[in-house]
Amino acid sequence: MATAVLDQRGDVIGWDAAAQELYGYLADDVLGKPARRFFVPVDGRPLLDLDVPVESWGEKRTLRTRGGGVVEVVLYVLRLEPGEARPASAAWGILSVAADRMDRWVTDQAMLAGLSTQSPISLTVIGSDGRVKWVNPATQDRFGLYRDDWFGARARDILPEGEIISPDLRGRSFESVIDQVSRTGEPVIDLHFRSPLPGDAVHRHVWSCSYFRLQDAAGHHLGVCESAFDITERYEAQQRFELLSRSSSIGTTLDGIRTCEEFVAVVVPDLTDAAWVDLAEPVLTGEEPGPWGVSKPLRRVTHRDTTGHEGAPAEDLPPDDRQLVLPLVAGEMRLGVVTLLRTATRGPFNDADRALATELVAHTAV
């Protein structure tokens, strides 16, 4: 903002570099001379009438510049009271800024205010020490925490079970990513982070997070800003699509046990934390399997899991929304049973998961 200071007579006694840039006059050109020579409104209406001392705030005026050009500015004219920080002769201050720059500033401020108070995107400012300095209301609402719960806390303390699942960043700690952005100034975009919410260990959410360094006008680092929004449904849908596309790897041979092994390799861990396949004895001996409803012995032929329940028979597992037991059938032929299991740290099977599992099991049976 350009600043000019006038005395009681209206002569210029202060002229800063911003005023020089905006109007084109050097300080030596204007100091000690009447301000009306340099503040020339195109419409002819006086900028300042010393006989009618009225202050003006945020008025748009078009003024002439050195060389005959014009500039539209937003003007602030204010009366100055004598004080220790200014000369006793100072009577008026004229502050001005190019109107287009002011419009951009007003828009910026409105955008920032909207982001901080109204945006559905979670925003968090993390200091150079890795501790939270500020969060917006969306972050509080999303995680069910108050500001006092966040301030001074580290992310790993708030979401201790969280993990980075982006393929190129998998295995890295949250703190190392923050440190990288803080040191290099290079932003990190669309990092995928998965974690249960505080107070809800049942459902794991996935967020798309982006990080960029904050600094003041002097270039001093203030910390790192994180923006995050929930992409759980989109991420899970994409995972289901990719998993279905990999079903072509099931049934590469006519060997039944090999086919079951290929099935569990596809579904663990992307769809389920554990999978077991039990086949009817006739299938293993090359006999014609009986129709569904005819009791035949089953034999465990393959399993894969990350749960600690390895090898547990399906009937020993409590039926709930984390277990889905599907028949392995082809037409009227009962081939066996498939058991899928999720742990307590993972969300239960939903309708889309069940539909996908049913399709993959049917593909395996064929």
Q: CA-to-CA gap between the ends?
A: 75 Å
What composes the largest sheet?
6 strands, antiparallel
For the secondary structure, the number of strands is 15
Radius of gyration: 35 Å
Task: Tell me the helix content.
Answer: 25-40%
Structural write-up:
β6 and β7 form a beta hairpin. The mean pLDDT is 86. The chain is an alpha+beta fold and 366 residues long. The chain has helices at 17-23, 27-30, 99-117, 137-143, 147-150, 155-158, 174-184, 232-245, 256-267, 281-285, 351-365, and strands at 2-7, 12-15, 56-64, 70-79, 90-98, 122-126, 132-135, 163-164, 188-197, 200-215, 221-230, 274-280, 298-305, 323-330, 333-341. The longest helix is centred in the first third of the chain and has 19 residues, at 99-117. It is rod-shaped and about 110 Å long.
Q: Notable features of this structure?
A:
366 residues; alpha+beta; five-stranded antiparallel β-sheet
Task: Spell out the blueprint of helices and strands.
Elements (H helix, E strand, L loop, with lengths): L1 E6 L4 E4 L1 H7 L3 H4 L25 E9 L5 E10 L10 E9 H19 L4 E5 L5 E4 L1 H7 L3 H4 L4 H4 L4 E2 L9 H11 L3 E10 L2 E16 L5 E10 L1 H14 L10 H12 L6 E7 H5 L12 E8 L17 E8 L2 E9 L9 H15 L1
Antiparallel strand pairs: 1-2, 1-5, 3-4, 4-5, 6-7, 6-11, 8-9, 9-10, 10-11, 12-13, 12-15, 14-15
